[in-house]
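worker-03 picked up job from queue 'complexes'. Input manifest follows; two sequence lines, order preserved.
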Amino acid sequence: MLEVLRAGLLTPLPRAPSFLLGVTGHRGEVLPVMDLLRFLAKGEARIMPRTRIFVGVSGTYVAGVVADTVLGLRKILVSDILPPPMGADAATEHMLGVVAGPTAEETINLLNFTKLLQTARQRAVAR
Amino acid sequence: MMAHEQEQQEQERVEDEVDILFFEIGERLYGTDASQVLRIERALPEDLSVPSLGELRRGSRALVFSTSEGEAHLKVDGVRGVRPIPIAELRRLPPAVSAAPFTIGACLDQTRLVLLIDLVETARTQGRH
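worker-03 finished. Artifact:
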């Protein structure tokens, strides 16, 4: 991850994949912004006052992903990371693992951001 | 001597800028190389509209431009003027962004990013002139 931004004005892209919400200007460059929910076929993000964009990089590809809110930064012991649950849906495919919480609601799903961006690029090119 | 220097500076300034014509389709603002636009006319029903650029509100204006097969007319809602934009403020879209082939880049216009459209390519992708 590079940084977290407030969701500002997004410029929609004609004929782009639906998960690509648009582009925004960031530090003088064009930043593509993805909707993770659409990408994983789990709904769609809504841009609200607390919406944030977290910016990640994989190789030379930099992209932003919409988050409803950012809760903070937390250290996790590698030994606490469990394998992702069995399943073949897009979400499981793009997870590094899970960290169990005291309750099911507090379980943390760890995204494999590199894999996420790779798949996004493949899907975009394959269109 | 001073006049010559001023002339040279002006020439350098012109070479570092490109005139962008800004236009609106629905709520979206786009830009295009102003040198592509021959004139702005009142739109006619048979003029070209490109739904992927956005939903036209009234589409009462048309940008007239030249293609290899003659003039083409793109319906727009409004023209927001022509401004010289420094070339340094123009950006290509990241390679992984697969958008329509007529989106050739973006320009950083104050707080917002404005997509730059190749008008000739819009006519080609619509198969109309």
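worker-03 released lock.
The radius of gyration of chain B is 16 Å.
Chain B is about 15% helix and 45% strand.
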